[in-house]
User: Fold these one by one.
Assistant:
Number 1:
Amino acid sequence: MDRLRTEGEPARLLFSGHQNGMADPVFACISLPCQMHYFTRADVFSNPVARWFILRMNMLPIYRPKDRVPDLPERNQLTFSAAHQRLDAGAWCGIFPEAGHQPERRTRRFKHGSARLILGALSRPAIQSRGIVVQPLAFDFTRYDGYRSTARLRVGAPIDLTDLGTNPEDNGPNRMLLSDRMKVALMEVSVELQDGPLYDAHLACCRFIEGSTGQRPDPAQLAELRRELQSNEAEALAGFQALLDAGMPHPRRHDAFEGAGRLMASAPTRLGRHAWRWPFWAVYRTTTGWWPWLLEKRMARRIRSAGFRTTFSIPFLLLGVGLTWLLLALAVSLWLRGVSFGLLLLGGLRASQSLAMPLEDAWIRRRAERAAAPHLDHPWMQRWCTLR
């Protein structure tokens, strides 16, 4: 976050890859030190509940060709004008240059709408006086499907705009130059995996490295793995499928490869350090700990895209847990004939949840390690997931 500290109060535009539906902008809004104004696909504004929520997060609708709305350029120009006014005032805006989301860890081709926005901002007197910082923001989700996935955020260095001048022309060459520069900057802070058939095998290796080192894989290491996978594609794909057929869980849906990394690095999860949390964990599991599992199954049946399951399950989870707590507090208040007892229960339930989550996460990691343990000697694991 040190890269977000700059002299004065310049406007700021953060551009990022888009991997998890609506969760990306929400994650940025609650994690960054300043209120974000994110460009968001316009079709989600059509739902009254979603519209109420996202408008209160200061998001801006952006229209895509596939939305098939009349006067699309004019509508987007209104959105750009609103964003420019906010940047004039020193606001922070966020945009997804890929103009769409996909649940994979790789950067795709940039559309030129982001470059148009920046070139337009650079010509405004207020921006020329205040200054603007444009920098990449990388989102990372260890897993898109299922309960308790880890989300990470990394901020890159600002891109150089000085060679564009004080009043650059909004033309094709400048848009292409700026888009290419932005993509290179984003790839420097992102995890870039091989696209196509080798993606899942590369992801498995990446998750193994994350488990063994406890941090983001080195880009050079991932690039070396990509080259080796490409040069041995048939062998790598056949071996990976054989590993899955033998019972190893898929890296997109399970943390087993990360667990394998911890086991091979002789760093298995220790539950003993969390023994004192057991009573709080029991309270959490009994009262509201079943909500995530219930919603996960329901969302898997109703929503095809894994990138949107989290988006819709989180609000329902917050609502379900909150209502459960309120009903329990009401029951206790009526039983003991005192509102104060209900309020004390609410505080106790919230404290129990907070104290229980480290143990809950440790249990999840331990289960991942147990799922991986029978497969550590598999030839594919020994060939591609040995520590390097």
Number 2:
Amino acid sequence: MRRIALALAVVGLAAPLLSPAFASPAPAPSKELKKALDEFHAFYKKGMADTGIVGSSLILIHDNQVVDGISYGLADKERAIPAGERTIYHWASITKTMTGIAIMQLRDRGLLSLDDPIVKYIPELRQVHDPFGDIGDVTLRHLMTHSAGFRGATWPWKDKPWQPHEPTRWEQLAAMFPYTEIEFKPGSKWSYSNPGIIFLGRVIELLTGDSYEVYVDKNILKPLEMHESYFDATPYHLLKNRARSYFLTGGELTAAPFDVDTGITVSNGGLNAPIADFAKYLDFLMGNPKRQADYDGILKRALLEEMFQPVLRIEPDAPPAPGAEPVEESQGLLFFIEKHFGRTFVAHSGGQNAFETHFYYHPETRTAYAVAFNTLAVTGEDKPGDSKAGTGKLDRAVRDYLFTKIFPLLAAKK
């Protein structure tokens, strides 16, 4: 296990990567906090070993200072490369939050309204069958709240090894429009939809003239100094840092395809970044008095916080297990709003090609963390068909540990 020295925050190992927000070391932790973090490291390490996850990294931030960072295991098992703060993980659906920020940027510049019909920008969508009314009733706001009625998966099928990972061109997606239907009245309920976010990415390209990747790089990644973050295929000079990913099922470890191309779905899940870069994104999301002028140049704080407001309640798939903490979840504008242990968090997760990621931000105490795993593990005791059980269970266990044992100590420092 590689542990980043607390006295140096993450800065001692990653100063060139981190934004000015993290340019000075965090104060040394109290004995109580250090003991709690030591115990958390042991818990995290044991959970990784018990689950069989090959590699993972986690970063914890409080009041714009990196409190703790930890990496465990291997970024690349075949080459025995350890995971570390520069290991590049695939953040998958967390990309959606950047797509939402880009849409809000365009709204702020007067280029669109969230209540515009999506067919105003993508008239091809009029080919979609809408049994509930006029497809013109579907708005950008519906897409940003997963309430437009589109199906969940990009492909309606994908079961052959020779099929591309995702559609690679817009024409391939558009060709499916006559075979696509709206599944419920837009705005009437929540249902997670990947195609809906791709349509938002298309709007960004049509209004700016840039590809999605170029637009977000120019308007989010570069201003945040996320210089080792990118979309899809890894630049040659960063290949040495790119994590491989693995499926672990029934005790058998299988390497996932390396460095996959998310194609036309890039706005839905194409982000790759090391944990040190992702810390900069968290700093932006929580706001930083020292950098707020720069951050407002990306998106004004009031507009970002508008994205954090609950719009639709997400009904749970099933009641909580006996003894489990009930979770309330709502959808904001491409951010999730979750209640855990009586506290409200802004969050999003990602999962693709055996990578699993998550971040949580607690606005009240200005505390946040992000975690990335490079293994989708299923343990023998998990329910059949629960493809995320092993890694998902550890992800939830880490969350609950931090929320109940670490976050309260950081809140007490306020």
Number 3:
Amino acid sequence: MSEVPLKLGSVFAASVVFLSVPVTAQTVPTPAAQVPAVRNQRGGFPMPALPAVFETSQQKVRVSLVAQGLDRPWSLLILPNGDMLVSMRYSQQIRAIRKGILDPNPVAGLPPMRLMFDIAAHPKFAENRWIYFSYSKPGTGRTPIVLARGRYEGSSLVNVQDLYVSDPVTAGASRMAFAPDGSIYMTVSGAAGRVAATGGEPALDPRKPDTAHGKVIRLRDDGSAPPDNPFVGRPGARPEIYTVGHRDHFGIAPHPTTGQMFHVELGPYGGDKVNILKAGADYGWPDYSYGRNNDSSPIANPNVPGIEPALLVWLPAITPSGLLFYTGEKFPAWKGNLMVGSVVRGRVRGASGVERVVFNDKMWEIQRESFLTELKQRIRDIRQGSDGLIYLLTEEVNGAVLKIEPAD
């Protein structure tokens, strides 16, 4: 969603436990002129002193700093040995954190690019050392989004090759995840909606399968389209497309039991949602939304035949980014819960945190909680480590990796 600050409020469930400020008759609100300036429309709030303990609805958690000094990072990858790789969208780098130490030098071997997006390890990484990454090609105007891979050698990627190159699309961002069958799903932004043909370039429509714009694509690990993709063999359709009609969609992960791919998508002004991806399904953008346009004008509701409904919706929007189903043992009360990072809630700068959603065995939502809102950091990614702990990536100029562990 657009992150223009508006005068909207929200109620959060979590509360910090190491600091309290008594409210008395003498408490006077800080005049607006004395509020510290922060970056326009973005975060910019200082990180609170860490480690610190915070309350959630079921237990206390301790948040500590793993590494800091990352310029607006995008994606966090935790390797089997606990080392981490962090992608940086604007500086076009991958940075390594080894044994808790941020390497001052970026990982070598990346190709020239316009923007850096997601990173993922091959399911057989222990054998092949393959790291997959997505990026947009250099250039102005529309440029293709690429799925590439290279062999990770600790300080560099070697034998880097482009596996898949889309048609030229509008620049945005992308997420990807491997499914249990070994295929890889990758999102391609459609936030620009329908884009008219100009200067010889074709029109782009998120709901038409002739472009990767506004789609989830599904590929084999060599970058080719699986023969069972829904648009294979259809004239004029791109065979890599799996679903159509998406806006910005910055989280994707398989369900740990069913293997179904779950997916978070940003509405324009409200209406962020979780989707279960179904082959060939149309999710409606830009004609349908649970929210409104960025200027608050109405959009048709997607509860119509032919448009795949959302599993759940956020109103006000949270700007979701990153998604996981918790499967570890360190937080037994959270096992099976869906976790989503929140960049900004209700267009209120500094209103961010982690969203936790509980489902029953029918995948009906039964509980929802926002926590770690006191951090006031833009949560851009959320991952589970091999140690069963949860790690967050903050998208700030001085971005950080944070570790969440039980404090009880």
Number 4:
Amino acid sequence: MSRSWEPLDVKQYRSWNDDAVDGAFVASRDREVMQSPMGVVGTNPPTSALLASSAGLGWSTMSAELRSHAVGETPGNVLKDVEICLVIAGNDDGLVRRTGAGTYQEASPKTGAIWLSPAGIADSEIAITAPIPQTLHLYLPTALFDDLKDDFNLPVVAPAHSIRYVTGIRDEVIQHIGFSILSELTSETAASRMYVKAASLTLAARLLQKYFDGGPPAATDSSASGLDNVRLRRVLEHISGNVGDDLTLADLAEVAGYSPFHFARKFTLSMGVSPHRYIARMRLESAMAELAVGKQSLAQIALNAHFSSQASFTRAFHRATGMTPKEYQRSRL
């Protein structure tokens, strides 16, 4: 990976959570309690503590939680989503033991280690022998894998149930995407929801390509080339005319005539930036223009730029320009 990551301060997460808005879709919320192969919330005493959550950010294709895990044993549970556990700050001296899919597995929860659990898997027992300070849990709904069936020419009815049950692996692709999702939790951007959609598709595709029980499927389109000029112009005009609306990856893919998975890759090849980064940049430019006019409140400008709060907008604006929105506005009025 190109950058090193340090364990994040829990106060940062609590501050971020104070900015969040209630009501986001969370893929695993249809369980009675939040469950994962590294602990079950709601046990007494608890084996897992929630440090941060994607609840409130409007993510529709993935939910994310940062958790700390204490020493202990938990009963098994059945996951309704595919789960990826990425150790953010680990413990080289401990072990995580679990039994599922007819196998016993154990591995050291070192930083960067990954656990995969397919939808429908039933763990019989999970044991943690030493505290794990920070683990990122990503939940991918089964519908996400169903959406990729045509892209990968999958013959199976339920591909999310055919992901391998593996423990303590290393995968640089999953690790890189996981850390980028963690960054979105702490530093919201103007197109976070679009990025998470693309990231969730990429994660699901990675699991199908490398950890699919039926063997790696072949994609029907390699997406090795970018968009042709006609399609690219059509997409850019659509973005320009609707940048203030709730643009989605599916909307842009439909304009281009591709699936969301292939569109995201082709757009990036054509433009040199991903769709979410391109849209975030355009929304920032629009916000700068609104600030210069000075007719709207900061809260309204933040809402127009698709941030969940004024505080999130201010942080993102300062990262991009080196000034707060108020400072920028005073320099233009």
